Amino acid sequence: MKLKILFLNLLILFSNLKVEAFDIKIKIFSNLKSKQAIIESSYPLKNNISDCKSAKIKVKTNSSNLEIECGKIHKIKTKLEINSNNLFSIEINGKKRFYTDKIIITNEKGILSLINQIELEKYLKSVVKDETQDLSNFQAYKAQAVVSRTYTLASIKRHIAKGYNLCDTTHCQLYKGFNQIKKEIEKAVDETKGEILTYRGKPIWAFYHSICGGITEDVSYIWQQEPKPYLKQIEDGPLNKPYCFKAKGFKWRTKIGIKTFKKFLKKKIIKPEEEFKDIKVEKISPTGRAIELAIATDKKTKRISGIDFYHIAGRELGWNAIRSTKFKIYYEKDFIVFEGYGHGHGVGMCQHGADEMAGLGYDYKKILNHYYKNVKIIKLEGGK
Fold first, then answer.
1. Is 123 helix (H, G, I), strand (E, B) or coil?
2. Burial of 239: CB neighbours in 10 Å, binned 0-12, 13-18, 19+
3. Are the CB atoms for 168 and 28 separated by under 8 Å?
4. Where are the domains positioned within the chain?
5. Dihedral (Cα; 229, 344, 113, 145), 10-degree rounding
6. Which SS3 state, helix, strand or coil, does residue 381 take?
7. How would residue 299 be classed by pLDDT, with cut points 50, 70 and 90?
8. Buried b (16+ CB within 10 A) or exposed e, 155-174
9. Taking the model in full, what pTM does it have?
């Protein structure tokens, strides 16, 4: 069904929501720019092209429309729609993923735009799969299901001006389709159907991250926004033995060649004509995270927030280079060294901490109430 303005206005009145009837629109392959795609199924694909009854459809952009090949049929259309309750594959740039429900394909300035319109609860099974790839405990899957459902509703308008609700990257939540979903994950989503975390009747911004490094962060130190009583600094377990301590990457150290680092800075942070001289952490939060960095060049000193630096470095150098904002900086000969703790922004639920708590016997509700304070878990109508 189409998103209704009425529904969006009623997010604060959750008794009116019917979870089983709620569709969302996700832009898929959103970080790939491609002009062609191949859609395949084991069954003839239901679509909006007359006389097209093939199980394989090829689509590519021309100057302003779509060129669609379905068997011997060739059509020029402004839009291709695929509908199926069964899984079908979409291959773009050599990447093949599996989807269900409705796919809407259009030409966006010569590039394919693909939007998956899908039931919320189906979508969550893929999200939980993609967001918990290195977790293993059932109660942690259930906690993630509630968190991802809540985050989806809280951020439902994020891309609404562009014609869809969310993208399929970590900017929103990872969503890479439906191949290889564990039965435990499907069960976790089903058993928590309709459950969300609320504060004063609204879905919370249920941020989460991989590894907190021993303590989570108050959201006000990471992003400039109104204080949120449910996103406060939380000690992750007993003193000197945090729940996420066993996680690979709890403590990390990365050496980056000075030449590589200078090239990165000139490309993304400082001006190409400037010469890098030094970098240091100028402000830190009570948990030890970098709030502000000062980057000195031969012309000036540029200040950048720790979280912006982390995101820029992650996109350019890889997310395993500088893994969090909880770090110190050293120099070693021709290298700059970042040494720190944790992986991710540090706000909200620590996924590896949640996994360890589940392994110790905590259920998902206790896990959620550990990481999010002053919240209520409610069940939307239809979540049986």
1. helix
2. exposed
3. yes
4. 36-109, 138-247+345-379, 251-341
5. -60
6. strand
7. very high
8. bbeebeeeebbbbbeeebbb
9. 0.91
